[in-house]
Amino acid sequence: MRAGLLRHRVSLQASAETRGSDGEITRTWVTVTTVWASVAPTGGKEYVSEDMLKAAASHLITTRYRPGLDTSMRVLFGTRVFNIESIVNKDERDRELVLVCQEAL
């Protein structure tokens, strides 16, 4: 993988639950690590959900291999949030990961 292609700084975040003083459980996002990545749009789509027209932007986010990533995590790119739909270990060589993501709107 050419390092020059990884020109975007992104944060990988995991969900964490915290219990407030009143006992209520709150879901928060915790940054696991910050890495260099390539963020590339692959297109967009519109769909109907609950009788409302919604839009979703699809992106491929490529980064160096990192164990421990899963689809319950998300990617933060500036102020934009991307939910990870699937993770591809390119050529099964443990060198490069391609994250197939949907931008949270």
Verbal overview:
With 105 residues, the protein is mainly β. It has one domain: Thrombin, subunit H, CATH 2.40.10. It has strands spanning 8-19, 25-49, 52-64, 74-77, 80-89, 96-103. The protein has a six-stranded antiparallel beta barrel with strand order 1-2-3-6-5-4. Strand 1 and strand 2 (25-49) form a beta hairpin. The two termini are 30 Å apart. The model has no long low-confidence stretch (mean pLDDT 88).
Instruction: Categorize the overall geometry.
Output: globular
Report the β-strand fraction as a percent range.
over 45%
Main structural class: mainly beta
* CATH architectural category: Beta Barrel
Q: In percent, how helical is the residue content?
A: under 10%
| CATH class category | Mainly Beta
| Major sheet size, sense and barrel closure | 6 strands, antiparallel, barrel
Question: Counting H and I runs of at least 4 residues, what is the number of helices?
Answer: 0
CATH topology: Thrombin, subunit H
Count of the domains: 1
Oligomer: single chain
Provide a short characterization of the protein structure:
This protein is an all-beta fold. Helix content is 0%, strand content 69%.
Question: Can you tag this structure with a few keywords?
Answer:
Thrombin, subunit H; mainly beta; 6-stranded antiparallel barrel; 6 strands; 105 residues; single chain
Write the layout of secondary structure elements.
Elements: E1 8-19, E2 25-49, E3 52-64, E4 74-77, E5 80-89, E6 96-103
Antiparallel strand pairs: 1-2, 1-4, 2-3, 3-6, 4-5, 5-6
